[in-house]
Amino acid sequence: MKRLFYIECSGQIWRDIALLCQQKADWEPILWTASHDQRGAVLKVFPNVSFVAGPDAALGLQHENSIWRIFPPSVEMLTALAPAESIALHMMDRMDPGCGGGFPHDARRRHWHSLLAWWNAAIDNLQPDQIIFSIAPHVVFDYALLAVARYRKIPTVMFERLGLPGWVFPMADYETGSPALRSALTPAATSGDLEEMPEAFRIWLERSLGGGEAVPANFQKKLERYRLRKDQSLPSLSRSIVHELKRAVVLFLRNGFQPAPNSYLRSAHWPHERAGPLETLTSRISGVFAKRKLIRLHDKLARQPDAGDDYVFLALHYQPERATVPMGGVFGDQLLIVDTLVAALPAGWKLYVKEHPWQLQPFGRGEVQRSAEFYNRLRRHPQVVLIPRGEETKALVRGAKAVATVTGSVGWDALCARIPVLLFGAAWYRDCPGAYSVVAIADLKAEFQLIRGGKRPTVEGVRRFCHALAKVCVPGVLEPELESADHVSHSEASANMAKVLLERPSDAP
User: Fold this and answer.
1) What is the edge-to-edge ordering of all strands in the sheet holding 27-34?
2) What share of the chain is helix, strand, coil (3-state, %, to 5)?
3) Considering only Cβ atoms within 10 Å of each terminal Cβ, which end of the chain, N or C, has fewer?
4) 491 and 429 part of one domain
């Protein structure tokens, strides 16, 4: 029997995957995390599993009822995991009700230690043989578990989605990526007829090369859910306030005066407890006004692009999100990306920076990772041009000498348009010819010289990458409630994802 943790595995599809693995290979789920409303369904199928609600795990609430003896993390562990600590503390921004004032640094550090201690105890007591993450960690507790698993050399596996909705591929972790994909990308492995690709891949590839945008499946659903446009236009203040009040009423009717069970927001008044309805509403209303104040500053600082400029285009990411933290590592701080690019830019080149269209939208928590200092810092560099929110992103990509991003779909759009891409994170297309992963300023300067000399991605390189990608992908859905992938058969997806897990060696990188 193989003992498994299933982490952030919500929805019927994940229960079916685990059941297939149990039936075919005696894989026994021993711990499961998902949203609160999944508890009954998971325990019905796997009555002996230890179920922990993900939001509770993020806040550390499960510690209070733990039956295990929990020891603080050792000096050796904390030293080994020091690089992960800074990223984890950054991830905790999404838990802060006060834009930095509600969850101070000391409290975050203690929370990190507490998470490490609990997951170390869970591993000691449950002895998992492997840990399955539905997707790259992004709600702090799962990142802590991944860090402990690495430290203790426990095999992990997670899936990643791509620009083609309904297809996923496995990997040990987001930093390592997929060695199978890199092997499939060798010239010998890609010499076959590209017509061997599944029809969905061929259609997607031709659409991408023809200028189609690669909006991620989860963002597509958000567009529909919040009735948003893909441009930078914002709802009125009154609509924003009404939206928050309606949201608060719905949550009150559902939960009364109790905190919303699926909220990650940490109370500033009762440490380690979830924020209640009034504190949550106050935080969100304050956020609406904070974002509108930031919009006015942004628009004051922005200026129109100049048709004569040679420029690198940096499309900022929405934050807080996993796309930058943890998947960007140290470059989750996007000002560090700006500083790095400016330090390496060829003489006379500009850096065009455009804000993410949803960063200051009222539905999110974008105010926790933007500030007046953020935008003012951009303008301190004479080479940096903050582009108006309404400028067309596609035109900015097409006119750029290179496009910089952490993991964004704008990078894939650029590759398909034969524009060089400078990557600052673990993007799903990182292995595509023409994508350059930035590590050092000196190397980036050398890459800029190659770009000035005419280095560009090729259509053939993109085709080869898609051919290789198709070999390692299977039909699948990672977060059914968040992804626009209704065309994917539930049974086909669960069967294929289970098959991939079962056939993958437990120690595969």
Assistant:
1) 50-53, 27-34, 2-7, 130-133, 156-161, 167-171, 474-475
2) 50, 10, 40
3) N
4) no
**Nearest Cα to 119, choosing from 149, 89, 160?**
149
- Strand 167-171, strand 156-161: pairing: antiparallel
Q: Say if residue 52 is in the same domain as residue 117.
A: yes
**In 339-396, at which residue ranges do the beta strands (DSSP E only) sit?**
350-354, 384-386
Specify the number of domains making up the chain: 2
> Whole domain around residue 315: which residue ranges?
217-463
Please tell me whether residues 158 and 225 are part of one structural domain. Answer: no
| 231, 155: one domain | no
pLDDT of residue 87: 97
The CA distance from 403 to 421, in Å, is: 5
In tens, the pLDDT along 361-408 reads 888 889 999 999 999 999 999 999 999 999 999 999 999 999 999 999
Whether 208 contacts 165, CB under 8 Å: no
Distances (CA, A) of 265 to 60, 268, 271, 363, 491: 12, 9, 11, 15, 35
Q: Which CATH number belongs to the domain containing residue 361 in this structure?
A: 3.40.50.2000
Amino acid at site 9: C
Report the CATH number at residue 41: 3.40.50
Backbone angles phi, psi at 119, to 5 degrees: -70, -30
**Residue 428 has which token pair?**
């799903």
Q: Are the CB atoms for 73 and 120 separated by under 8 Å? A: yes
Determine the Cα–Cα distance for residues 256 and 258; give it in Å rounded to an integer.
Answer: 5
Domain for residue 142, yes or no? yes
CA nearest to 126, candidates 196, 50, 223, 212: 50
Contact 369, 319 (CB under 8 A): yes
Are residues 107 and 224 located together in one domain of the fold?
Answer: no
CA distance 256 to 44: 27
pLDDT per position as a tens digit, 177-212: 999 999 999 876 665 666 778 999 999 999 999 987
Average pLDDT, the chain: 92
For residue 262, give the DSSP letter: T
Tell me: the pLDDT tens digits for 446-463?
999 999 999 999 999 999
pLDDT score for 100: 67
- Tokens 């990182």: give the residue: 430
Task: Give a yes or no: residue 417 inside a domain.
Answer: yes
CA distance linking residue 147 with residue 3, whole number of Å: 19
In a domain, 427, yes or no: yes
pTM of the full structure? 0.93
Q: Which residues are CB-contacts of 114 (< 8 A; sequence separation ≥ 6)?
A: 60, 63
Residues 426 and 325 in one domain: yes
Check if the beta carbon of residue 30 is closer than 8 Å to that of residue 128.
yes
User: Is-contact 2 130, C-beta < 8 A?
Assistant: yes
Counting every residue written for the chain, the total comes to 509
- For residue 468, being part of any structural domain is answered with no
What is the tens place of the pLDDT at every residue in 2-58?
999 999 999 999 999 999 999 999 999 999 999 999 999 999 999 999 999 999 999
Spatial separation of the C-alpha atoms in residues 396 and 249, rounded to whole Å: 42
